[in-house]
């Protein structure tokens, strides 16, 4: 079955399931959770915002900001790529590629790479925004590209991982995993551990590949397909993959959340928690979001559950991302929700805008960057309350 038919099949199946629920007896239970008022414990400040370009609502693209230590880069669905000064939000350059974009940007080595809906990888100079080359990768991508040394890594929705020359876009190597009959639209962005590329696929496998040669080092089945129907056997790894030190953290749909050793693929621990959003990680904890919107925090060392929060059920929250002493997620109404990383209790809530937030928030240095589906980018910080200075008591001599 080709990609187009696979995607249509998922849409039809999903619509069918939705219709079954709508005609059931528990209509009220299918409504998104209402937001509950609480006393904020953390002050969030918006530092700046900018309009990137056209809307990407309902298109399920993978566009989110990226940084290189000097600038923040972001792309819009209608083909505009922009570089910003992270302190002021001042636009440094903007390039209109005049093509619909589906993923990126990826940033590194003085280069910026974005991926077009028509199957092109496009590399720009990070200093000027000038286009350097376009290369045909033969399929759409919904995973951000990676750049390391002189290589660009691209993963496409046909279950292929490709390496391109950063100098001219020529193919260097590619690997491909078998594609299931049915899959969820999406792809997990690969990650680097040293010179190893870790990538997840629609068949539920996590694969480690040598960057220079494309040699597969190991494979691990994270989400074994189960059940009789193609729908029951969905096992995609489509969400974020996290790395802390030499350990890799991943979650699969209708499967499990697991920690693996990057050098061998050995499973260090796993829990029966399914997620399309994937995982994020801090030094102490791993965070994931179930399909129903429940946020779960696990101890990074052994996967023991620390807390759960179900206040965002059916609000389509993004992956919860560690930020300072909080974890933050966006929802379908454009709200940003901040929870304590210690107990999962809500500590702040701000409205990013009226459009949905479907791309995961991104932390770069000490700032939080959020891109909504209407092409608005904003930078946030947590304001720490400091006690006001008072004049010291003065005591006269001899008093």
Write a structural description.
This protein is mainly β and 399 residues long. It has a single domain, classed as Methylamine Dehydrogenase, Chain H (7 Propeller), CATH 2.130.10.10. Helices cover 5% and strands 42% of the residues. The chain has 1 helix and 33 strands. The chain has one helix at 3-22, and strands at 43-51, 62-63, 66-67, 72-75, 80-84, 91-96, 101-108, 111-116, 120-125, 131-136, 146-148, 151-156, 160-165, 171-176, 191-193, 196-200, 205-210, 216-221, 242-244, 247-251, 257-261, 267-271, 279-281, 285-289, 295-299, 305-309, 321-323, 326-330, 335-340, 346-351, 362-364, 367-371, 376-383. It has a 5-stranded mixed β-sheet with strand order 2-7-8-9-10, with no helix packed on it. The protein has a 4-stranded antiparallel β-sheet with strand order 1-33-32-31, with no helix packed on it. The chain has a 4-stranded antiparallel β-sheet with strand order 3-4-5-6, with no helix packed on it. It is globular, with a radius of gyration of 22 Å. The chain starts with a helix and ends in a 16-residue tail after the last strand. Mean pLDDT is 88; it is low at 1-27 and 393-399.
CATH class: Mainly Beta
Structural class: mainly beta
Strand residue content: 35-45%
Oligomer: single chain
Molecular shape: globular
How many structural domains? 1
Helix content: under 10%
Strands, total number: 33
Radius of gyration from CA coordinates = 22 Å
Architecture per CATH nomenclature, i.e. the level-2 architecture: 7 Propeller
Q: How would you write the strand order of the largest sheet?
A: 2-7-8-9-10
Q: Low-confidence spans: pLDDT under 50, at least 5 residues?
A: 1-27, 393-399
Contiguous helical run count: 1
Give the averaged pLDDT, no decimals: 88
Q: Which homologous superfamily in CATH is the superfamily?
A: YVTN repeat-like/Quinoprotein amine dehydrogenase
Beginning-to-end CA distance, first to last residue: 93 Å
Please name the CATH topology. Methylamine Dehydrogenase, Chain H
Main beta sheet strand tally, sense and closure: 5 strands, mixed
């Amino acid at each position: 079955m080709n990609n187009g038919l696979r995607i249509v099949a998922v849409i039809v199946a999903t619509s069918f399931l939705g219709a079954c629920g709508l005609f059931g007896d528990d209509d009220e239970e299918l409504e998104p959770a209402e937001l509950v008022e609480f006393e904020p414990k953390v002050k969030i400040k918006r530092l700046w915002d900018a309009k990137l370009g056209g809307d990407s609502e309902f298109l399920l693209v993978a566009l989110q900001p990226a940084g290189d230590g000097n600038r923040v880069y972001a792309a819009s669905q209608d083909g505009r790529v922009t570089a910003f000064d992270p302190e002021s939000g001042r636009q440094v350059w903007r390039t209109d590629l005049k093509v619909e974009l589906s993923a990126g940007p990826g940033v590194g080595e003085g280069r910026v790479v974005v991926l077009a809906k028509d199957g092109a990888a496009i590399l720009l100079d990070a200093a000027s925004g000038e286009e350097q080359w376009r290369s045909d990768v033969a399929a759409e991508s919904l995973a951000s590209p990676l750049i390391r040394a002189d290589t660009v890594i691209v993963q496409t929705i046909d279950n292929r991982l490709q390496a391109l020359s950063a100098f001219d876009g020529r193919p260097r190597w590619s690997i491909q995993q078998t594609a299931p009959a049915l899959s969820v639209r999406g792809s997990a962005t690969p990650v680097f551990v040293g010179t190893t590329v870790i990538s997840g696929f629609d068949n539920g496998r996590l694969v480690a590949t040598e960057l220079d040669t494309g040699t597969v080092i190991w494979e691990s089945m994270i989400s074994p397909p189960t059940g009789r129907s193609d729908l029951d056997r969905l096992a995609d790894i489509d969400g974020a993959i996290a790395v802390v030190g030499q350990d890799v953290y991943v979650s699969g749909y209708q499967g499990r959340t697991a920690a693996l050793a990057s050098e061998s693929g050995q499973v260090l621990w796993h829990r029966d928690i399914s997620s399309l959003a994937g995982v994020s990680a801090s030094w102490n904890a791993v965070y994931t979001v179930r399909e129903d919107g429940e946020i779960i925090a696990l101890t990074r060392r052994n996967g023991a559950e620390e807390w759960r929060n179900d206040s965002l059920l059916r609000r389509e929250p993004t992956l919860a991302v560690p930020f300072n002493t909080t974890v933050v997620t966006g929802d379908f109404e454009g709200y940003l929700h901040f929870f304590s990383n210690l107990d999962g209790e809500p500590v702040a809530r701000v409205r990013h805008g009226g459009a949905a937030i479907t791309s995961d928030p991104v932390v770069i240095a000490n700032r939080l960057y959020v891109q909504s589906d209407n092409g608005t980018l904003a930078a946030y910080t947590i304001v720490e309350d400091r006690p006001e200075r008072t004049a010291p008591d003065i005591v006269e001599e001899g008093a």
